[in-house]
Amino acid sequence: KINADESTLDVAVLIRMMLRSLLLALATSRCAGDGIEDSKAADDAPLWRRVVDAVPKRLSTLTLTEQRDRMALWQRGIHALPENVDVGTYARHARLLPILRHRGGADCSEQGCDVGKVDYGALTRKLGPDFAEALRENEREHLKDCAKSCEKFYCGAAPSKPWQTRSISMGSVPPEDFAQEFAFPLDLIKVTQEPIVSKEEAARAIALAREENVDINEYTSGKYKLGGDWLAKMDKTRNWFNTQLEENIFPAIAASFPEVVTNVSTLRAHSVAMLKYNATHPRTDVHIDNGVLALTLALSPQTDYEGGGTFFEHLGEDALVEMDAGHATWRPGSVRHGGHRVSSGQRYIIGAFLLLEDRVEHVRRLKNRGAKLRQKGDLNGAIRHFEWALAINGKCATCLKDLSELRSSLADMEPQQRNEHLKEAEAFIRRSLDLLPSDSDALFNLGLVLSKKGDSKGALEAYEASAAVNADDVELLYNLAMKYEEANRKEEGIQAYRKALKAQPSFGKARCNLGAALAESGDLDGALVEFLEAVRYDPSSPTPWQNLAVLYHKQGVSTVQGLAQCASKEAAVEISRTASHALGEADNAWRKVMDLVDDQRTKQETVTRLAQVLQLRGRAVAIEDPAAALPHFLEATQLLPTEPSAWEALAKVYHIVGDEVNSKKAGARLGVLRSLAPQR
Known about the structure:
By secondary structure, this protein is α+β, with helices and mostly antiparallel strands. It has helices at residues 11-31, 47-54, 64-75, 87-94, 120-127, 129-152, 199-211, 235-256, 362-375, 379-392, 397-413, 418-435, 440-452, 456-469, 474-486, 490-503, 508-520, 524-537, 542-561, 569-596, 600-622, 626-639, 644-656, 660-676, and strands spanning 2-4, 7-9, 165-168, 189-192, 218-221, 224-230, 267-277, 293-298, 305-307, 310-312, 328-332, 337-339, 342-345, 347-356. The protein has an eight-stranded antiparallel beta sheet with strand order 3-4-11-8-14-7-6-5. Strands 1-2 form a two-stranded antiparallel ribbon. Helix 20 (569-596) runs antiparallel to helix 21 (600-622).
């Protein structure tokens, strides 16, 4: 059951209401005679105006979430809601219904979702011989990848086998390759309703993988790490998986996508990994997969873990696809998704990227090559490949994001053209968001671009919108926290840092900034905890050590100042010991900074700070034992040999301990330094 505005709706009742709305919309469409034209009251308005009026408006009074909810309802023919029903709740469950093919094509985004057949001949004539060669290189790569797949994974002929699945919309953006062949916008995410693998076989796969040490390996997914490994390295587990491919998985996938998969023999398992989620390796990044099709096979019973599931970004976090052991989902590889957070227990899955031997994915391969060129520093070559991919598929949201990121990078590298590059970067990322408004990465990138342009308010709004979609992305929350601080929204900044650290406790920069924010708010004890954790997780960075040193230094200064109010020697000794401890920690931290920094200016500033700490520490120690204070004052004069205050303090301590010879020497040095000082 779903709560909405204090009313409780049974899901079955809700679905029936939605279906009645769908039937009403379809009936109205059939009875309209001339298509969209309807009542005589509107006969005087031209057809184009009635079409515009029928499309949901981008009203400035609506939030981004409200816009997406209304679009989701409109796409499914639901133009009126029952009374006392929350729009967000209704839209969330409406997303599980198919998008209607309205007359003229479903307007799945501001740019529509109609996809046409790609005319590669026309594109080659337009883009030239380099483009043609890039396509030929795609074909050569494709043949190599398919041949390599067959070295490790099942390739063979078998009849297709229809499998009982439910279908979910993949959102408003078509597959990056073969959108027309997929018959987009049909519901292209398939989820099994009957296990594709028995629970016993799923358990056997986990046991085999454990025998092959899957539990001691790590696998990177974007910004996150999971337990797991590639099946290409795991002979026993791979043999088990190949049997499942041959018997059920490949035949079922072929039956699900007959428009694209001509027969089972064309399917290739290109990259396959077993992943292990747990509390320390809880989730993946939101991403797309590197294949024309992608498979997720659940192996663990749902009773083995808390949380989990597959998160499809366009559906929202409240519409997770959760699967018990043996169930699977397969879909076009370009739909944005991620493994949702596991809070406890262990969840094992197999993820696979699939190719089709008789279909070359030109968009994906051009993007991949562009990314490699970018890594090599060939930004112009990268831009050209991304533009070629976009020419093939004008609704390639990731192509637009790639171009935006490149322009943003060029803005840093070419300051004389910074404004123009940032203008282009913003235009590309906004086009991407027009296609997929819920893309948390695109919203994050928009925030980065606007921040570079000096639009802090716009950047903050973009980060907030991104966090509303992907609430525990650590980099996003880190940037959001910094923008909150810039806007003087200190408490919200602190909370954003805490959320980032809840998602990734080892994020040293976030701990460092949180400590600084707490210190500024007056919570020095809380700041100390965060700085200590920051140096534990990021010991090779000087910044957390600097912050720790400053905090201990400040504690020492405050404590030493209390000596003036002491009424007894015993009280003074107690305070001096407390101060000495804090200043000793500051001493250690500044020495660590000296070891880590390279530039001479920072190193000299650190030397000055350390000398100040040594003098203050000597003063505190001298309360109880003046002789024990001498080494601190001596080192201060060695660090700052031209600083008069260091020699003055040393002379006094020598005098206190009765060493008049060294006291006079220190006094003489002090006199020389004072004589050399400019007269005021």
